[in-house]
């Protein structure tokens, strides 16, 4: 997690990747971009699911590594222009995000994740120069939400490959570079 306030204000992070795909004329985008131009870091919203996800992240990776007998890189950070990646996990040449959700098994059965999670992986892949992405998703229930320190079960862990195409990376790069130009000139993008 990026904790430096200045970094959040001056860069576009993975959790913000979905914003760059928005219509620039929407109120949501304009407020977000105004904050970027002014160097303001709005209060980060949080809820029970987000808090539990943060608590469980390393336990989920521990479980994944023990099942697969692998060791990857955790919590790595890299900057490419205005884009900043603060990754959950990297294994070889694959960028991996970790999520704890009541929908993990549904995502796995459909082999489809929410678009904002895919865009987050595209953002990380762009920054690192990778072309492989995956979501490690853990199925949570109400008991685990109430007590996130329970032992995790391998039966609730899902690996969901996420296709990241050259076109995905190129589209992302174009959007990031345009916003970097706008930020450098302290202007609101149009279009």
Give a description of the structure.
It is a single chain. With 191 residues, the chain is of the alpha/beta class. 44% of the residues lie in helices and 20% in strands. The chain contains 7 helices and 8 strands, in the order αβααβββββααβαβα. The strands form 2 sheets. It has a 5-stranded mixed beta sheet with strand order 2-5-6-7-8. Strands 1-4-3 form a 3-stranded mixed beta sheet. β3 (77-80) and β4 form a beta hairpin. The protein starts with a helix and ends in a 7-residue tail after the last helix.
Q: Which key phrases capture this entry?
A:
Lambda Exonuclease, Chain A; 5-stranded mixed beta sheet; 3-stranded mixed beta sheet; 7 helices; 44% helix
Specify Rg, calculated over alpha carbons: 17 Å
Q: Main β-sheet, in a few words?
A: 5 strands, mixed
Mean pLDDT across all residues, rounded?
Answer: 92
Strand order of the largest sheet: 2-5-6-7-8
CATH topology of the domain at 47-175: Lambda Exonuclease, Chain A
List the total number of helices: 7
State the end-to-end distance.
31 Å
Low-confidence stretches: none
At CATH's second level, what is the architecture of the domain at 47-175?
A: Alpha-Beta Complex
Helix content: 40-55%
What does the secondary structure layout of this molecule look like, with pairings?
Blueprint: H1 5-10, E1 12-13, H2 27-38, H3 48-68, E2 73-74, E3 77-80, E4 83-86, E5 89-91, E6 94-101, H4 104-110, H5 115-128, E7 132-139, H6 142-146, E8 157-163, H7 166-184
Parallel strand pairs: 1-4, 6-7
Antiparallel strand pairs: 2-5, 3-4, 5-6, 7-8
Helix pairs in contact: 5-7
